[in-house]
Amino acid sequence: MEKDKKIILGISTGDLNGIGSEIIIKTFEDVRMLEFCTPVIFASIKTMSFFKKHFDSAINFHGINAINQVVQGKVNVLNVWKEAVQINFGEDSVDIGVYSVKSLEAATSALMANAIDALVTAPIHKHNIQSDTFKFPGHTNYLAEKLGGKSLMFMVTPTLKVGLLTDHVPVKDVPQQITNELIHEKINTVYQSLIQDFRISKPKIAVLGINPHAGDNGVIGEEDDNVLRPALIEIKEKGKMVYGPYSADSFFGSKNYKNFDAIIASYHDQGLIPFKTIAFGHGVNYTAGLNKVRTSPDHGTAFEIAGKGEADHGSFKEAVFMAIQIFQNREEHKEYSQNPLRKAPRKQHKML
Q: Engineered SS bond to 161: which of 88, 157, 220, 262, CB 3.0-4.6 Å?
């Protein structure tokens, strides 16, 4: 990428009846954001103009009909649809879900074609996006199919990073899904992400147990002793600093998480409840392991406050900055890999 050219950042709208468009507008009505990236919102100028008027925003949109018409220094809106869309804030609507998918698919196609450099996704509603042609429980699974690599839900802040062995899986199915192969795959994904995406040269990773008290030597389940521990031993023997399994109930309360670069939880709530308790509102959901960069805020559609102008855009703004930073880190990692004698990395932009 040319040094004077800003990263082109694609943005999918998420559920139009939720808070997605509000947090997008609040983020980019601050014109200083255009110093860091060139945003492209995959929606329609009619729809985004409706939101601009509703929220009485001073943001200026630049409508385009093709991705090659992007203008630097503008908040670009790529017209993915032309018809007027009926917005009913806070309503769970299958019709609106269709537009969530249209925005996501168009943005993903642009990402795959290298027409945009990274993608930030506003929150979708997992129920109303389902159809005969779209059967994914969320962004992560869809992007994992479309993009190369092994996806992993990675919840991150500058000081706390939590990955998952299993993500959107019913609790009853978790033990059967955690296999030796899966453990190796997910830990390797986190390890490589810490190196190339976050510039941590020698990552130190903690893994939480599957059962309460990590099984208590088989008293509360045998999965930790029979599956998790042996896999961690194998990984450690290969030179990676991986520790555990730790009892999840006291790990965060004791502040032990501060001793590690990343924590890997066995299932969704085991990792996301403490993460969101500690970091809610400024955490970022990053899909690690893919050949492209995608981030999103750490919250959902928030139908209960949609349209009221009350949404906090802090996490979405952090997701934008995180996408930019990870893209830059990956580019520099590529340069280092190709030229190991290269000197210290360029000074990074100070984010707002």
A: 262
> Is a pLDDT exceeding 70 seen at residue 352?
no
3-class DSSP state for residue 191? helix
What is the C-alpha to C-alpha distance for residues 154 and 255, in angstroms, rounded to an integer?
19
Q: Looking at residue 196, what DSSP letter applies?
A: H
Q: 132 falls in which pLDDT band (50, 70, 90)?
A: confident
Interstrand relation of 284-290 and 204-208 (parallel, antiparallel or unpaired): unpaired
| Residue-level pLDDT at 348 | 44
Edge-to-edge order in the sheet of strand 241-246 = 61-64, 75-79, 37-43, 7-12, 118-121, 293-297, 284-290, 149-156, 161-164, 262-265, 204-208, 241-246
Which residues have CB under 8 Å from 31's CB, separation 6+? none
Q: Could you give the CA distance from residue 351 to residue 325 in angstroms, rounded to a whole number?
A: 10
- Under a CB-based contact definition with an 8 Å cutoff, are residues 33 and 3 in contact? no
Please say whether the beta carbons of 210 and 228 come within 8 A.
yes
For residues 151 and 290, is the Cβ–Cβ distance under 8 A? yes
Average pLDDT over residues 147-172: 92
Please report how the helices 314-338 and 180-196 are oriented relative to each other, as an axis angle in degrees rounded to 10: 90
What is the arithmetic mean of pLDDT over 279-286?
91
Please give the average per-residue pLDDT across 247-259, as a whole number: 96
Residue 102 to residue 342: CA distance in whole angstroms:
43
Residue 252 in this model has a pLDDT that exceeds 50: yes
- Within 13 A of 112's CA, how many CA atoms are on the CB side? 14
